[in-house]
Amino acid sequence: MTMDTDSISEQWKEIVSKAKEFWAHLTDDDIEKARDGRDQLEGVVRERFGKTKEEAQQEVQEFWNIRDPAKIPKPTPYYDD
Asked: Which residue has the higher pLDDT, 47 or 71?
């Protein structure tokens, strides 16, 4: 399963938090470069960590498989009746 750009935009803060956990050495500038989606994130991973295209694709896929914000349950609103 992959995420589209709209999903990324909607849940950007969650992705940033999880990406910084997954790749501890990413800077805020790196994160901003990756804002437009998966391809950009792969490019940042390649550049920052000296990965091949295939390695970056695999690493980003692993990140998405584990930390896809679409799979994170949304908080249930609390209603006090």
From this structure: 47
Q: Where are the domains of the chain?
A: 12-71
Three-class DSSP category at 19: helix
Q: How confident is the model at residue 1 (pLDDT cuts 50, 70, 90)?
A: very low
Token reading at 64: 């998405």
User: What is the band of 67 on the pLDDT scale with cuts at 50, 70, 90?
Assistant: confident
**Number of neighbours of residue 41 by Cβ within 10 angstroms:** 25
pTM of the predicted protein model: 0.66
The third-level CATH classification (topology) of the domain covering 12-71 is Protein Yjbj; Chain: A; (1.10.1470)
Three-state DSSP state, 11: coil
3 state SS of 28? helix
